[in-house]
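User: My collaborator and I are trying to settle a disagreement about how two of our proteins should look. Neither of us wants to argue from intuition anymore, so we agreed to look at predicted structures for both before our next call. Could you fold the first one, then the second, and keep them clearly separated?

Assistant: That sounds like a sensible way to settle it. I'll keep them separate. The first protein:
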Amino acid sequence: MKLYMNAAACSLSPHIVCRELGLDIELVEVNRETHRTSDGKDYLAINGNGYVPALMLDDGKVLTEGPAIAQFLADSVPQGAAMLPEVGNLRRNEVQSYLNFISAELHKPMVLLFEPAYASVHDRVRAQVSKRLSWLSGRLAGPYLTGEAFTVADAYLFVCLNWSPWTQIDLKQWPALHGFMARVAARPKVREALRAEDLQAFDVDGVFFAPNAYLASSGWTGSPVQP
C-alpha cells in the first residue's frame, strides 16, 4: 500500500495507525505547490481534490479522507479491533463520533488558522476552537479519549493538537490535553512515524513536532530534538 502524505499534515494520522498495527506501508510525499509526488506521479490524477492523505491499495484502488482511511486500516487486520472495536460494539460508535468531531470542529477550523487569507477571522476561529478544546478536555475518559485503549481517534486528535503552537493556541490552558499529547508522543510506534517523516520536537514542551523547513520559515526558536 502507498500512503500519499505531507510531513506533519493530517496524513500523519493514518501513518501512525499503520505503524501501530504493524502494516507495511510506502510513504509517498506530495508537493503542495506542484501536486507532483515523490515517485514522479501527478497527484491530481490520484486524488482530484489535491490534498492528502490518499491510500492506494495493492490493486490500485484509492481511498481518500483521513478518518475513512484510518477505519479501513483498523478493519483490515485482526489486531485492528484494539484501535477500532468491531461493528455492533458501542465503543466503535464512540470512536467514530470522536472522528467526526475532530474532523469538523478541530481539523478544518485549525487549518484556517494557517491561511493568511482568513486573517480577519482568525481571532473568532481561535475562540471557537478553544471552546471545543474546553469541552474535549472534560471528556477524556482516561489516558485516551475512550479510556485505556489508544484508538484511531486518538491518532487523529494528536495530529490536530500538534498544530496548536503554530496556530497561536496555548495547549497548556488544558492540562489534560497537554498530558494527552505527552502520552501519545511517548508511544514507540508514534515516535517511529515522527522519525519517518523527519519531524523535530522543540524543547519548549517536547511534545510538538514539525519539519525543520517549517520551523525555520515560521521563525520558531529552540533546540530541535529528534524523537
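The second protein, kept apart from the first:
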Amino acid sequence: MTRPLLLIGAGGLAREVLAAVRLLPDVWNPVGALDDSAALHGTLVDGVPVLGGLDRIGDHPDAAVVACIANARRPLSRLNLVSTLDLPDERWATVVHPAAVTSGASLGAGTVLLAGVVITTPLSVGRHVVAMPHVLITHDDEVSDGVTFAGRASLGGGVFVGESAYLGQGSMVREGVRIGAGAVVGMGAVVLRDVPAGQTWAGVPARPLLGESA
C-alpha cells in the first residue's frame, strides 16, 4: 500500500529524495515538504508544495517522514532535528533508490540511499544515514547514526564511521580506519589513518586542516 511521505527540508537533498521516491510509486506518495524558512512556504519543490514549518507535522499523523538535511558545515544538524521532532522509528521513512544495491544490509530508520549506492555484503547501517549517488560501502564496515556520504565516497573493508561524520565527494577511506563522531573528510581526500572525532581532514593523503591537532 502506498504511504504518504513528508519531506523535512526543502533544499537540494529534498529534490534528490523526491527523484528517488517517484521511481517507487507503489511505496511512497510525496504529499509535501516542511521547512522553517518562511520564504519557502507556499512554494513548490519540484512540484511538491512546501506546506509550512516543522510545527505543521502534526497535521499529517499518518505520513511517513524523511529528514532531507545534509550539510558538511553542520554535521550534527540532521540528528539534532530528529531528536527535536521526537518521532517513533516507525514514522521515519527508509528510502532506497531502485538503482541502489544493498546486498541484504540492515538499514536504520530514516536512512536514504540514492542511485548507484553499493553495499557489497550484509552489514548494519545506522539510523538517518544519507548516501548520495555512487557511494561504496564494503565488507565489515560500521556506519553509525546520522552519517552523510557525499557522491562517490568509498570505504575499504572494516572501516568504522562515527555518528554524524561527513565524508566529502569522492573521498576514499583505507581499510580498517576509524572516522570519529562529527568528523568531516574533505572531497577527494584519501584517508590512510584514523580521523579523531570532530576534526576536519583533507588532502592526499588526508591530514588535519590548519589549527587541528594530528
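Some points you might bring to the call about the second protein. The helical segments are 12-21, 77-85. The chain has a mean pLDDT of 94.
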